[in-house]
């Protein structure tokens, strides 16, 4: 599924539903959706090396290391009926210490 080109803004639920069906990855900043660029091999190597180092350092700690395939929401905590400001992105490396929080069952 492709994102409609004639729309500039999407609700968070619309973005997440379309992103789950899309073959391409997109990031969403304050409800505006942007296609992600491709990756250079050197960038992939750097990300893999950092992920490996973090994994080794955190092995016996209550933290988990994730690769760039994990979508993350960052920014202010949204309140009901707000415009859902924030960034949904795929960071190169992610470390989670403690309980993970999810938007929904996906």
Q: Could you describe the 3D structure shown?
A:
The chain has a four-stranded antiparallel beta sheet, with helices on one face. The chain has a two-stranded antiparallel ribbon with strand order 3-6. The longest helix has 18 residues, at 41-58. It has 106 residues and is α+β, with helices and mostly antiparallel strands. 26% of the residues lie in helices and 21% in strands. It has helices at residues 12-21, 41-58, and strands spanning 26-29, 32-35, 63-66, 72-74, 87-89, 94-97.
Mean pLDDT reading: 85
Helix amount, in percent?
25-40%
Order of helices and strands: HEEHEEEE
> Radius of gyration, Cα only, in angstroms?
16 Å
Poorly predicted tracts of residues:
none
Beta strand count: 6
User: How many helices does DSSP assign?
Assistant: 2
Class inferred from helices and paired strands: alpha+beta
Relative strand content: 15-25%
Order of strands, widest sheet: 2-1-5-4
Shape: globular
Separation of termini?
A: 17 Å
Largest sheet: number of strands, sense, barrel closure: 4 strands, antiparallel
What secondary-structure arrangement, pairings included, does this model have?
Layout: H1 12-21, E1 26-29, E2 32-35, H2 41-58, E3 63-66, E4 72-74, E5 87-89, E6 94-97
Antiparallel strand pairs: 1-2, 1-5, 3-6, 4-5
Task: Give me a quick take on this structure.
This protein has helices spanning 12-21, 41-58; strands at residues 26-29, 32-35, 63-66, 72-74, 87-89, 94-97. It is α+β, with helices and mostly antiparallel strands.
Looking at this protein, list some descriptive labels:
4-stranded antiparallel beta sheet, single chain, two-stranded antiparallel sheet, alpha+beta, 106 residues, globular
